[in-house]
Amino acid sequence: MLLKPQLLILVVPLLLVRRAWRVLGGFALAGGAVGAASAALLGKEGIVNFLQMSRFWGKSEGTLAAINPANMMNWRMVWEHLHRWTGAEVALGVALAGTLVMLGVELHSWFSRQAGEDDWLTPLLGIFATTLLVTWHAHYHMAMVLLPLLLVALLTGCLAFRFVLWWVFLPPLVQFLSFVGGVLSHPGAIHPYIGLNSFLTGSAMMGTTALFLFRRPEMQKRCRE
Questions:
Q1: E strand or H helix at 214, and its extent?
Q2: DSSP label at 135?
Q3: How many CB atoms lie within 10 A of CB 179?
Q4: Is 163's pLDDT higher than 70?
Q5: Hey, how many other C-beta atoms are within 10 angstroms of the C-beta on 209?
Q6: Average pLDDT over residues 142-165
Q7: How far is CA 44 from CA 48, 49, 57, 93, 170, in A?
Q8: Is the pLDDT of residue 219 over 90?
Q9: Bridge partners for 72 per DSSP
Q10: How far is the C-alpha of 157 from the C-alpha of 151, rounded, in Å?
Q11: pLDDT tens digits, residue range 66-96?
Q12: Cβ(161)–Cβ(37) below 8 Å
């Protein structure tokens, strides 16, 4: 399936607010082409099966491996783990607070842009980084959407290379170390992608992705130099 509508929850509304009609028109054409390609790849039976999967979208891990929110890189993942350890109310409060903070930082940066400012890279990187953190469905591989933007940021000198290194290597390192620690502390009882292992890995993904949002002023300064 080529469609990932969960990646559009911020960029489309912001384009509407900005009245970027040409961009939206181009997006509609491209989206239609991608939708048609997805439908062609799925076929009639695949489309029916995809629609039937919708009943699993709000379920927890174990219902369907492709859904599994415990292995995501967003605030839904945080809620999924915390509600087992602290209770639903505390977990919901933490997840909502984190979501609102991320949205607040990004929206403030977006609407505080100066008229005529030609920097498109840092706003777009911030939008997609924020989207990954707050959208309802974002597994680790969804972060690939940042790769083209990060490549441009590196080539233009807008982003320090160390941040990309952290983003690439820290999450798998955390996953490996937490898995080894689990095996050593509870031999035979540890499973990857479950419990504390997935929480720490997802948190590392969130933290390194959030760097691109919170380091935005520094990136803008480097872009202007």
A1: helix 196-214
A2: S
A3: 18
A4: yes
A5: 22
A6: 92
A7: 6, 9, 21, 42, 41
A8: no
A9: 139
A10: 10
A11: 678 888 999 999 999 999 888 889 999 999 9
A12: no
